[in-house]
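Sharing a chain and its predicted structure for anyone who wants a worked example. Both blocks are below, sequence first, tokens second.
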Amino acid sequence: MASGPDTTPASAGPGSPRDPQAAPTTPGDAPDEGARRTPGAETAPAADGPRPGDEASDAHAPGAGRGEPAGPGRLRRLGALARREALRTALAAVAGCALGLAFPPYGLWPLSLVAVAALALLTRGRTGRQGAWLGLAFGWPFFVVLLKWLHVVGWDAVIGLAFLQGLFLALLGSALALVSRLPAWPLWGACLWVGEEFLRDRFPFGGFPWGRLAFANTGSPFTPLAALGGAPLVTFAVALAGTLLAAAALAAWRLRPAAGRAGRTARTWATGAGALVLAAAVGAAGLAVPVPTAADDSVRIAVVQGNVQQPGMDFLGRPMKILNNHVEATLDLARRVEQGKEPKPDLVIWPENSSDLDPYKFPEAGNRIDEAVKAIGVPVLVGALVDHPTKEGYVENQGIVWHPKKGPGASYTKQHPVPFGEYVPFRDQLSKVITRLQRVPRDFWPGDHTGVLQTGPARLGDVICFEVAYDEIPRDTVKDAARALVVQTNNATYGNTGQPEQQLVMSKLRAIEHGRAVVTAAPSGISAVVAPDGTIEQRTEEFTQDVLTARLPLRDGLTVADRVGAAPEWALAIVGLLSCAGAWILGRRHGTVRGNGRRNDGVRDDHHTHQHPAQARPEGHQ
């Protein structure tokens, strides 16, 4: 990315005799199943369902739902609810932080399974509102840990963006609570994870794909699944394995000695063992997926990392500084080639913003680029910000093929500028309130075609920075006949914060997804060469001047993921949506009992408080 200035009604919880899917959610809240079925015992609301005094009783309180101001009684009930939910809220926050640690720079990918399982258990049997609260308590800390690199801009940006993204997890938590009452709930929960990412990757302002489960699993047994269904299938597999582990944990809790013989049924044993076997099978399935890597051809490349004057928001330094760094590094490469110390490359790749001045507008910039290109004697892919030819005041983020004899030729313009980084939505209004936005003086104009460029003997697919996070841009580029992918990026603003590592693993996933080698070029690092199987063959350190040389495999075949496109994501997201609708309709139809002894239509159910457990209908029947 250009990093500088230009640069429903809720159903009742389980535990009611009328709820066939009743189940405790967490060990601390599970009722003793043996005691519940003992003759003579009185039926009590399940510990993981709504209790007297929670939102159920709020719904029937005087003035509730009529727009009347909340009185002291309402505030007391809300306070009681907050205290009652404090433990779950804390556990959700811890699980969210654990998910953040699954991503680079920590890279503890098994924690993604633990976090998914924890959220499934915490939301199981809760109402939609309670699930939403737990989802937010999970999501907000998760994104704070994940996006802490934004502190370079300001910690308010970290907290604010993390909260906005956490709202999507709140929606997920509510949905997970609804479908937790359905048979096969781990499957529906996994589909909902895909649905949440589907929405977050697209809204608002084109979406923000950071933090997808797939990006935490670019070196796990699930990773090869990307060759079949892209990042959405990897997310689905991780989420399914995690929710299956939650089901196994739930079964193990019912089998504990304190549950008595009634809890140790053959069905419970089968459920727990089956969930574990299925979770293992989902993980092992990825290992059985063939990842195409055989090259049809190859080309020798050089990747130039010229370095920047300083890290942070003011990485540009004085004009021409970054450009001169890349020119000098390329001239040095040319000298080594001439001396026989280095084989001559077929093409050279510079990163995004490697020219800090518009080479078409400023002759001194164009001349320096021309000097370097002629010295090395092969085409160079240059990253530059150029003025829009017809839209005054707009700038384009381009990759330009610069030929040693013909000069600048074909170019690619970034299709997905970053909101608030490369353009400011509602600029006139927001700039008056958030003066920091004035550091983005001009808006970037989006390109209208893929970045397939003939760069010397290679037909490369250019993807600029943040675009590697979006499924459709790399996929469309490959389907337009790109034989390898190049990610021109500039992470100088966020150097040494973990953000470059987070972006690099996206290149690993895209390599496997499309069966293409991926070259990442950054002015300050991390620059890397990634093989089609996702192996990082070479990489640079941050804030160093360096040149990588490699023989890059070129491929023409398409993976299954390329052929099916977005169909798996749409299908899984729609299944998740339908499961929510089904859970809501079933809850309405069966008049699910709420925790205060009322149905969700407000009718008192005396069975809830007076019926003997032995008189209840058999489990699984209405």
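Comments welcome. Confidence is low (pLDDT under 50) at residues 2-68, 593-622.
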